[in-house]
Every structure is written in C-alpha cells, then in structure tokens.
Design a protein that fits this description.
By secondary structure, this protein is of the alpha+beta class. It is 42% helix and 15% strand. It contains 12 helices and 13 strands. The protein has helices at residues 3-12, 50-64, 84-91, 100-114, 185-188, 190-208, 231-246, 272-287, 302-332, 355-367, 372-378, 399-422; strands at 68-74, 77-80, 116-123, 130-135, 141-144, 149-154, 159-164, 169-172, 174-175, 182-183, 215-219, 258-262, 341-345. The strands form 5 sheets. A 3-stranded antiparallel beta sheet has the order 2-1-13. Strands 4-3-8 form a 3-stranded antiparallel beta sheet. Strand 5 and strand 6 form a beta hairpin.
C-alpha cells in the first residue's frame, strides 16, 4: 500500500469546522429516494413492505456470508496471500464492536436503500497500517461532486473532516448523471411501493373492521309531517349504523322507511388480490430478485428454481460483488500494485450448503487436471498421500501411469510385428 500517499493526504487534509464555533458544515444532503426507511411517528416505511424487506435481507445477507480474499498474482495465477491484519479487518472485525458479517450486511443495506455507502479507512499514525474500516452513518457525509471532496461529520464513529476522493471507499448504486453519486432503488420504485403500502393499509383496515361496507342512508319519502325522518334524524341514524358496523355488527335493523344503499366496492371488484401479487413482482424486478426468492405465489418446479438460482447469482449477486471488489481494490491497494494484488469474494461459499453440487463440482475439477489435494484444500480437508498426482478423465488413473501403459502397449505391438515378420 502507498503509505506515503496517505501521509501527504493526512497532512493536507482540511479540518472539519467546529459546530460550537458557529461555522458548522452545511447539513448533509437528504437521502435520495423519497421513501422513508425508518419510522417517524409511526409512519409506514419501505422496510415495512414485506417484499422490500425480503429483497434487502436476501441481498445483504448473501454478500455478508461470503469471505473476502486478499490475493497475489504468482506465475500468472492469483492465489490467496496471507496478510493477517487485512484479513482480520475484512473477515473478522472491520471496526470497533462490530463483526464482519454485520458490517457488510449494513453496507449492502445502505447501498440498496440510500444508493450510497461510505467507508473511511482509518490508518494508525504510528505504524501507518490500516487500523479500521469505519462505515459512516446515514446523513453524515456530504459529497461535493464538483471538487471530488467528502465532508464527513460522523460524531458516533469519531470521524470528522474533509477527505479527498481517494481516501473514501464510496460504494455506489445505480448512477444516472456523472457516475459519482448513486441513486437508491427506492427512488425508481417509489410509485410501486406506494401502491404496495396502500394495499397493506387497505388490508389492515378490512381485517380490523371485518370488511365494513360503505353506503348512503336516505328516505325516499319527502318530509310531510310528524313521523317522517328529518335531515338531522337521518344523520343520527347514519352515525348509529356506522358505529354498529365499526363494532363488528353484520346485520342491523333500519327504522321506519329508511333505505340503505351500498357504494363501496368489494375486494373482487377492485381486483385487490391480483394487484397485490402484481406489486410483489414489480418490486422484485426493481431489486433484480427472482420472485421465487421472495416467496411469491408463482408456479415453479425444480428446473425453474434451479434456473432462478443461476440467474440470481449471474445477474444480481455477481454485479453487486464486483462493485464492492473494484472499489476496495481501488482504494486499499496502490495503483502500481493493482496488477499484482486484488481483493475478491470467495464465491464458492455460495454452494456451501449444496453438498451434491459441491461434489459434482469437485468431480469435474478432477477431470480437467486438478489434483485430489487441491480439491480437498478447497473443502478445508487435509491432503492425502499421493493426492498431488494429476488424474485423467477416463477412469481417474494417474497420468504417468497412462503414459507408461501406452509405452508398454507400443512395445508389445512392435514385438508382435517382429514375430509375424519372422514367421
């Protein structure tokens, strides 16, 4: 790593203004998206929608379960390189009192809901080594895209100041303009999630009052004298009936010649259930998650689920992992060393619970020249004697044994030819 670059940047860094002096930094820009993430005063939030919660949980936990590898190029192949400090920060404890699983899950959650995740690499002033990776809280970073500066005022993580672009690990979501600022998925899915939230509220209201109907109470006869309903009496009767319906009454009696006409539409008339299913699929499209992963009520079989797994890993998870890997490599490794070192997620852990798939994968590796000990090492198993011999795909015999057999067969063939000639 280029430690001298960090020393110069640290000396030239502008100190953050002191809020107590009255010259505080401008307020952090409001999070893009337009859909609340947290509840304020009991207001509905984006995560209160089941499909949004499932998609965010699936993506964040899928990334958090994968270990990060610090790799070095050797003989044209990248191999895992032992760096105790960096491995500890990436896979055990990136920051104070937070483990790596929670850290990367929160990073992906910020990325999906806010469109941006900001990580500050903090270096030790004495040893100049990477000391911690601090994930900035929501609303604590103001990004100046013109001057490529980041103004951080995160008192909870004890990080304040103005940082240049090369000192902030900025993981961005989908960008629209200059490629410097990410946009939240919630920004584009605002209308769909609004419909889903309205559907949830309608469902709650219907179950709360037992599916109350709405209507008009009227008197067909005009006011002719004593005994006929006056307007005030009709209003009292309407209020009384509304209280009965709100209380769960199903059958009520109407006094006199009062007539009740229903005006509300039923769930079937509104195609309520169909619209709710549609919003589930629409939200899954915004997050690029197959509907089967969100437990949508869709017809599926083994083949479609298997294909959904491939689509999810290829078109959804892999681009997300690549986004994080590239930014980590760009900010934690010096530019002149990027050709020799890289940081990469171990994607093989995605199949850790698929034992049949792992066995099939190991068998096919043996057929293309991978040794038994290399396959065992991938599964954290000790090497065995003779396991470094390359096998062939015919019947998994040693390649040297195959060559010797071919030579022996050639000798036998030449011997038989000589015998036939002599005869």
């Amino acid at each position: 790593m280029s430690f001298f670059r960090h020393i110069i940047s640290y000396l030239l860094r502008e100190d953050a203004p002191n809020p107590a002096s009255g010259n505080s930094t401008p307020a952090a820009s409001v999070r893009a998206g337009g859909v609340p993430v947290f509840a304020y005063g009991g207001a509905p939030t984006a995560l209160s929608i089941a499909t949004v919660y499932r998609c965010v949980k699936l993506l964040s936990e899928s990334v958090a379960t994968l270990p990060l590898q610090y790799m070095r190029r050797r003989d044209g192949v990248f191999e895992s390189f032992a760096d105790a400090r960096l491995d500890y920060l990436l896979n055990v404890q990136p920051d104070y009192a937070i483990n790596a699983y929670d850290f990367w899950r929160q990073v992906v959650t910020e990325l999906l809901l806010d469109g941006n995740a900001y990580i500050v690499p903090v270096y030790n002033n004495a040893t100049l080594q990477l000391d911690r990776l601090a994930l900035c809280g929501r609303g604590t970073v103001e990004h100046d895209t013109v001057n490529d500066l980041y103004k951080v005022n995160d008192t909870e993580n004890a990080i304040t100041g103005t940082y240049p672009e090369n000192e902030i690990i900025h993981i961005k979501g989908m960008t629209l303009r200059n490629g410097k600022q990410g946009v939240s998925v919630l920004t584009h899915a605002r209308l769909t999630m609004g419909i889903a939230s309205t559907g949830d509220q309608e469902t709650r209201n219907r179950f709360a009052n037992g599916g109350n109907v709405r209507g008009i109470i009227a008197n067909d006869n005009s006011v002719r004298g004593f005994g006929d309903y006056q307007d005030a009496e009709l209003e009292r009767t309407a209020a009384h009936m509304d209280n009965l319906f709100q209380g769960g009454e199903r059958i009520v009696s109407l006094p006199g010649q009062v007539d009740f006409k229903q005006i509300s539409l039923s769930s079937t008339d509104m195609q309520f259930l169909e619209s709710r299913k549609f919003t589930v699929i629409e939200i899954c499209r915004f997050f690029s998650v197959p509907p089967t992963f969100a437990y949508a009520d869709t017809s599926s079989n083994y083949k479609t689920v298997e294909q959904a797994d491939v689509d999810f890993m290829s078109h959804t998870l892999n681009p997300l992992l690549r986004n994080i890997e590239t930014e980590l490599r760009r900010k934690l490794i010096a530019p002149n060393l990027c050709a020799k070192y890289k940081i990469e997620f171990d994607r093989r852990q995605l199949f850790a619970c698929n034992l049949n798939g792992m066995m099939d994968y190991g068998s096919k590796l043996l057929q293309i020249g991978t040794t038994v000990n290399e396959v065992r090492r991938m599964n954290n198993l000790k090497p065995v004697e003779g396991g470094d011999t390359v096998m062939v795909s015919a019947n998994l015999r040693g390649i040297n044994e195959t060559v010797n057999t071919n030579q022996d067969n050639g000798k036998d063939q030449r011997g038989s030819d000589k015998t036939d000639t002599a005869q």
